[in-house]
Specification:
The structure is a homodimer of 306-residue chains.
Chain A: H1 3-11, E1 28-30, E2 37-46, H2 57-74, E3 78-88, H3 92-109, E4 112-120, E5 126-135, E6 151-155, H4 160-168, H5 176-183, H6 189-195, E7 201-204, H7 209-220, E8 223-227, H8 240-246, E9 255-259, H9 265-269, E10 274-281, E11 285-290, E12 293-295
Parallel strand pairs in A: 3-4, 8-11
Antiparallel strand pairs in A: 2-5, 3-5, 6-9, 6-10, 7-9, 8-10, 11-12
Helix pairs in contact in A: 2-3, 2-6, 4-5
């Protein structure tokens, strides 16, 4: 199947928005909602770097969309459309599975494919996705803005995706739920939208709770004091080393955010589980404790992209 | 240099717009001009497919930006910002040259880097760029809309980039001007913006004048009658075969468009050279002639992406 046929048969059915113009023009055209600020993100997933070469293509498509929508959620934005850059081998089965998975993920999150580009002739897939969303002006969330006295919160549970990676790599027994946390993360779109204009700072946990917390602390010019005992885990940890492995594993795609102490974050979050895990203090970096006993920072806080 | 240092040293200086938030947040935030429609395009360039592995990285960056801005121009849009997806080897020299070239190209076309993603660990570069622009509502140009009786126009000159590719591949003697047409195309932004709401249909010539003309004809449901003798060439053609090679070579990034016969396109185009090369007629496909003598369609009309 050449590019034209692939686009016509597999991708055009996903381009349900008028903005996509049926994928027949050189670009998408969209009339944005009046008076909104627009939010743009672009993340790349490469085989062998971000996913395993034999991961199911539908899962890769899901993750590609989810990690980008998670960036929108972290900015308190509501997604509107995406552009896809699909480069890889001319493997018809892989490509069809990818398009089918992308279609399901787009439908799940209520987003449409607006356009993009496809290329064959590469040895392994390199996938880019641009997600476009909107937010009320002044309500976009950023990493700077946390103030001493604010509470530190995280959504969902931390470390399950790291356990899922071990399953995917055959280092741990098969566990569908954990594998799905790694392969099919859920962007916290509803929570993100609710936090706009209320939370003082936020980001999504992609590289590890601790390293992402450190980035938020650095951008805000504050210290984050985290009670490791409060960090919500999907599965109980077997001691401190295991707990530290969870909070440095990454791929969680939960939201880590700060809010003034008097905000009723649980009510604001509605159906999304949220847990208070610490406090913003004056200073720099992270301060860890476990039920009031100080814990030394591990040497590795998460994934540092080399 | 790891990803963080590369972003901080080489890419952050290109992120001059407030929308980029210093590349410090999860996404860009932009307040679009009031009442405008927005235009989005994403094109991928891969080493070995779209450019030669030893092409200078600054030229690759230029072309990556130019081909995307050319898509905006083809839709009559004015560019506002771009997101970059840079995946490739951790080759510090190549990456620095790429960033420097991208910076020069962004400055040349008055566009800012808003965000994106970088990945190392790949054998060869795969580059994606999303360009975001705006157009007055209802003035976006598309491929459908040409009507019998309209005139068919093309900007600049055709076939030079194909000659430049031969130079780059060592199949033709060194010629800086031709090489630049291949490696550093100029998106026709001013012309594109002027054509919005006036031209009836248009696209940019990326795969070959004839194949792109055929696409415009198909989208509009018309026939395009092209006088090959009128096609503007940068260098004289040595006979019909050579002429046919030029009009099927591609990589021109000129605008091919139709307009009602009574529109003064030359005046509208201002400083951009434009040439009338044919007429829109009822029917389908292309009809070629050379000074009133019919010419058979060549078997290959341009690049078909396999």
């Amino acid at each position: 199947m050449n590019e034209r046929d692939y686009i016509a048969r597999c991708l055009a059915p996903l381009a349900t928005s008028p903005a996509a113009r049926g994928l027949c023009d050189d670009a998408a055209v969209w009339q944005p909602p009046l008076g909104r600020a627009l939010v743009f993100t672009h993340d790349v997933l490469a085989a062998g770097v971000h996913f395993l070469p034999d991961d199911p293509p539908a899962d890769v498509a899901w993750k590609l969309l989810a990690v980008n929508l998670s960036d929108l959620a972290a900015m308190a934005a509501t997604p509107a459309g995406v552009l896809l850059g699909l480069a890889g081998p001319a493997d018809a089965g892989w490509r069809a599975g990818f398009a089918e998975g992308l279609g399901r993920a787009l439908a799940q999150f209520g987003v449409a494919l607006w356009g993009g580009d496809t290329v064959s002739g590469l040895a392994a897939p390199v996938l880019g996705l641009t997600a476009i969303g909107w937010v009320e002006p002044g309500r976009a969330l950023g990493r700077a803005g946390a103030r001493p006295g604010d509470a530190l919160w995280v959504s969902g549970s931390i470390g399950d995706a790291g356990l899922g990676l071990a399953v995917a790599q055959g280092r741990a027994p098969f566990d569908k739920a954990l594998l799905n946390r790694f392969r099919r993360p859920t962007p916290r779109l509803a929570l993100g939208a609710a936090l706009g204009g209320v939370a003082s700072a936020g980001l999504d946990v992609s590289d590890g709770l601790l390293i992402d917390a450190q980035r938020l602390a650095a951008a805000s010019g504050v210290m984050l004091a985290i009670d490791l005992a409060a960090v919500p885990l999907g599965r109980p940890a077997a001691g401190l080393d295991d707990l530290l492995a969870r909070v440095t594993a990454g791929d969680d795609y939960e939201l880590l955010f700060t809010a003034p102490a008097d905000v009723d974050v649980v009510a604001l979050a509605g159906k999304t589980p949220v847990t208070r895990i610490g406090t913003v203090a004056a200073g720099t970096g992270l301060s860890l404790s476990l039920r009031d006993a100080p814990v030394a920072l591990p040497a590795r806080l998460g994934w540092e992209h080399q």
